[in-house]
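Glycosyl hydrolase family 13 catalytic domain-containing protein
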Amino acid sequence: SKHRAWWKESSVYQIWPASFKDSNNDGIGDIPGIISELDYIKNLAVDIVWLCPSYKSPQVDMGYDISDYYSIADEYGTVEDVEKLISGCHDRGLKLLMDLVVNHTSDQHEWFKQSRSSKDNEYRNWYIWKPAKYDEQGNRQPPNNWVSHFQGSAWQWDEHTQEYYLHLFAVEQPDLNWEHPPVRKAVHDIMRFWLNKGCDGFRMDVINFISKDQKFPDGPINDPRTPWQSGDKWYANGPRLHEYLQDLGKILIEYDAFSVGEMPFVNDENEVLRAVQFGRNEINMIFNFAHVDIDHGKFGKFEPGSWKLTDLKDFFERWQTFMYENDGWNALYWENHDQPRSIDRYTNASEEHRLVASKMLATALALQAGTPFVYQGQELGSRNVPKSWGIEEYKDIDCLNHWKKIPKEDTAAQAIAMQEYQKKSRDNARTPVQWSAAENAGFTGPGVKPWMSVNTDYVRINAEAEIKDPNSTYHYWATVLKLRKEYLDIFVYGNFTLLDKPSQKIFAYTRQYGDQKILVVCHWTDKTLEWDAASNGITSVKQVLLNTYEGVELASQRFTGEQWALRPFEAV
Ligand code: TEU
Ligand code: CA
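Tokens:
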């Protein structure tokens, strides 16, 4: 990558406030709880903290349904607490990102209350209202066939004003009408408000959905079993997206702010580059989805799916290459609040191999070119929820709406769904952070019932134990992130070349800058393996910088000959 920038050199730690740390024993994580653990975050060697939505919200979708952008949810704290969090970060040389959720609001936002009150209210145009269509039998139908991301039609009928409104997510999350200039102005004002408070930038929720094709055409029929089809063709990266992003970009540049946009359904390289190419001044980087959708079924994520290591490698190779060649930039992530735990999604590691497998995943990801993101608990090698969990433990609207659609008598479908939830539900990432082996994993006080059950493995997997153990996943992440900075030219600005492309067991790549080259070899199986280094062009290794099993001195004696003996999930 040609251009240097502080946001390329940084790494990010993501916080899900409800489950991070509870300071006042009400069972819900809060901002004072985050402030009390800033040293824990700093010691992970990250540079930036991303705070998931903490604004006032009815919490239908865990804060992604905002009812007031200028105040903080009571359960999390106050605006003053956020100011303290910002200064606590800045005191430690950390930056703070906030979540900007502006494709939609809560239906409890004052704008929407006004908008739905009458057709001639001045806020009517702030949302997307359409008259009904009628089928041949004269039955009322939504304006088009778009499906909501949380099941069912994306249109909700409003009795009072006799029109439908669009909600790409929950019924309680009406989409804003970005065609209407006052909406855009309101978003700009929100950004400036938080930037003026010292916030250092934004993670932008589904930012590529904000411009919809104004003809609102039907989506192509992909799933013949239902009338509701994905309309992403008509609202993902829509006609005016870049105009809107240029406007946001002007504000971001003014404050030298960080920006990462969430962009589902975008696979076209040129379209991605229009958003992130250096000098276009839209956003710094995007979250793409191909690697996290890898285990989804044909008709959605809660259907069984399968994948091969080469699928993952192809994805990385493609994005690494086109970004490098075109002066774009990648956001690197395995996990976030919408995804299951990486160790359970990307490896078959048993508990015996949890430690090495989690370190291997850290190595594979964070030494690529891009800005690495670590999601709370990932630094501990956290796992998915227990297989024994029943449906009553799950809290996420995405999963529960899916469950409601399964007929009560279809026990076979229920059994499959339960298996898939344990593999892919967003709840896997949302259990409380495991701070210690004390009751409630130290997340909240003894005797308190946390808002969501703590994963039963906290006695083994917790921060207190990992901080004490220099061999832990936590310290390994810090080592990787420091190494990335130590060899900044190579790891941040160097090129990427995939080695041993056809292997289903090895993910190996080199990074090169000038005549300096670093090789990264990740062994993806739970067996031992002889890897033919020589036939992949590795004739000599000058120095071993990192190993998931032992100190680099011992390791350097092992990686010498033509064949390398790799242990389960070993990375070097
Ligand atoms: O997610 C957008 C998104 O498209 C998915 O990752 C979504 O979670 C998935 O389709 C559900 O199966 C963002 C946020 O990250 C997510 O937490 C919010 O629920 C969503 O937008 C709505 O704001
Ligand atoms: Ca609390």
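The first strand starts at residue 12 and ends at 15.
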